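In the current project phase, the collection of sequences with tokenised folds has grown. A sample record is quoted in full directly below:
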Amino acid sequence: MNPINPEIARLKTEHLDQLADHVDGLYGKPQLRHLFFELTSACNERCFHCGSNCSVPGKDELTTEEFKSILDQVIEDFDINRLQLCITGGEPLIRKDFFEIMNYARSLGYHWGMTSNATLITKEVAHKLAEAGMGTISVSIDGLPETHDRLRGMKNAYKLAMEGIQNLIDENAFKAIQVTTVFNHENLKVIDELFEVMKGIDIDSWRVINLEPIGRALTRPELMCTPDDLRTMFEFIRQARRDGYPVEYGCSHYLGLDYEVEVREWYWLCNAGVYTASIMSNGDIGACLDIERSPKTIQGNIRRDRLKDVWDNRFEFFRRNKACDSDKCRNCNHSKYCRGDAAHSWDYINDEPLICMKGVLFE
């Protein structure tokens, strides 16, 4: 941990103070900007780090007509010109009615993007995605071929995903094609080699995140990133950005004065419940889809609740400074800025963060 330039520290602190004031206001007047649809929990891969434990279709998944009805409801209650519809799963393309739902969304005027493993994106599928109005996509690549296939539990997953990315590029119809990589203690060793691969394809950005202690990843504690791993990863991102490459860290954590704004576009803010809501494949309403699913975090169900009513009158847990409830955080001089850190990596039983960058990136 190197000392930060005093003038830069002063400027960043000023910005963080302004953001903290903004967030206080946002807790009282949240603004839905990203609505996630978990179309299915079915997936053709079995990624060891999957936060949602996706593999097979869940019980009582929403039907085609139910998803269409939700789209109708949202357009009545929200300004969809200020809202991004984010499609995910599982692997969303597994649903046989995928294009029926998304073409309907396009007909209503929705802006939408998708997260996918890209293994099912043939040239024909890429063209149909363009016709359905998809604007952005994030594709997962978690290492070089052997490592990617092993981590994702699927033979030829890397080959198919890279072909899918190229099919998207060749279609030349999307605003942004992004690759997302989850680094762990093992695959971080090839970050430089993987970077060369990313530089060799015409993507718009490379989103880098670290393995989190959630979902299936809890079964592989030996693959969690060490403090040295994290420092190596963040230094890599910072240097790549300084060299002009579109590499960015995800929205996961508050990083302290030295790294904030250095590894992503702006200062950290957990969007869960203030800018972001999700509808799960069984109709449950929540915030970020990576958050542990429990009676405390599920805010309602779309089959019995109207999303607008839930958004306006619930989500109390996500609209407060969690640090005030934690013995670990309460007296920390960064709690004003991190607010207990990310909702997806919060321990909802013990009321404390599962991950904190204090002591790793800053004091």
Summary: The first helix runs from residue 6 to 28. The chain has eleven helices and twelve strands. The longest strand covers residues 176-183. The two ends are 8 Å apart (CA to CA).
